Amino acid sequence: MTSLPFTDLPLPQAMLDNLSAIGYHEMTPIQQQSLPLLLENRDLIARAKTGSGKTAAFGIGLLLKLEPTSFSPQALVLCPTRELATQVANELRRLARFQANIKIITLSGGISIGPQIGSLEHGAHVIVGTPGRIRDHLSKGTLKLDRIQTLVLDEADRMLDMGFRDEIKQIAQTTPSSRQTLLFSATYPDGIQSLSGEFQRDPQMISLEETE
Ligand code: ADP
Ligand code: MG
What is the pTM for the complete model shown? Predict the structure, then answer.
C-alpha cells in the first residue's frame, strides 16, 4: 500500500500541525484504512499487529469530536492493563496538544482510588482505564458516562482473555446508545465477533495482514 500523508484527510490545520510537530507525517496502513471511516463516525472493528499505530487511529478520531468547554467525560478508552492505559493516555496527550485545555485522566487498578476521585471532581474530557477500576468508580458514583460519544475497546482480544467481558458490558450499559464504538485488536478470536455484536452498530471490519 502506498503511504499517504495525513494532509490527505479533512483534518483541522491545528491537528495537522501538531501531527507534524510530533513527527507523524505519513499514515500507517491501519490509520489510512480506519481514519476515513472513523471521521464519518462509523463503528469499527480494526485488527492490526502490535506497533502499527492503532492508538493514533482512534485517538485522532475521538479527540476531534471533543467539546472542550464541557468537562464531562466524552470519550472512554478501556485497556487490559495499567501499563497499557498509561501508554495510551500519554499518546493521547501528545495528540491532544493541537488544542488547549483537554484533560485526560487515567483510572487503573493497583493504585489507590482516592486521588483518582479527587481528579475526577475537576472534570475531564477523556478517561483511559482498566475495566475493573472504571466499574468501581461507576458503582461508587464517582464517574458518570452519560456524555460518552466515543467508546474504545483497545486490545479487545487481551481484555477478553483476561475475563473482562462482564465489566465491559456493565460499563457500556451506562454510556449513551448513540455513541461510536471502536474495537481495536491485534488478533481476531471468536469472542470478538460476539463482543462486537453486543456493543456495535453496523461495524465496518478492517483486518490487516501480519506484514502490513
Ligand atoms: P499499536 O497500538 O498498534 O500497538 P501504537 O499506537 O502503540 O501501536 O504505535 C506504535 C508506535 O508507532 C508508537 O511509538 C507511535 O508513536 C508510532 N506511530 C504511530 N503512528 C505513527 C505515524 N503515523 N508516523 C510515525 N510514527 C507513528
Ligand atoms: Mg495499542
Answer: 0.97
DSSP-derived pairing of the beta strands 126-129 and 75-78: parallel
Of 18, 55, 92, the residue with max ligand 1 atoms within 8 A of its CB, to mutate for a pocket test, comes to 55
**Does the ipTM exceed 0.95?**
yes
Q: In the chain, what are the domains?
A: 28-207 (3.40.50.300)
Ligand closest to the CA atom of residue 91? 1
- Nearest-CA residue for ligand 1 atom 20 is 53
Q: Which among 190, 187, 173, 191 is positioned nearest to 76, based on CA atoms? A: 173
53 Cα: distance to centroid of ligand 1 (angstroms): 3
What is d(CA 4, CA 7) in angstroms, rounded to the nearest whole number? 8
- Give tens-digit pLDDT for 48-107: 999 999 999 999 999 999 999 999 999 999 999 999 999 999 999 999 999 999 999 999
56 lines ligand 1 (CB under 6 A): yes
- Answer whether 10 contacts ligand 1 (Cβ < 6 A): no
pLDDT tens string 14-56: 999 999 999 999 999 999 999 999 999 999 999 999 999 999 9
How many angstroms separate the alpha carbon of residue 50 from the centre of ligand 2? 6
The torsion of the CA quartet 159, 131, 144, 191, rounded to 10 degrees, works out to 30
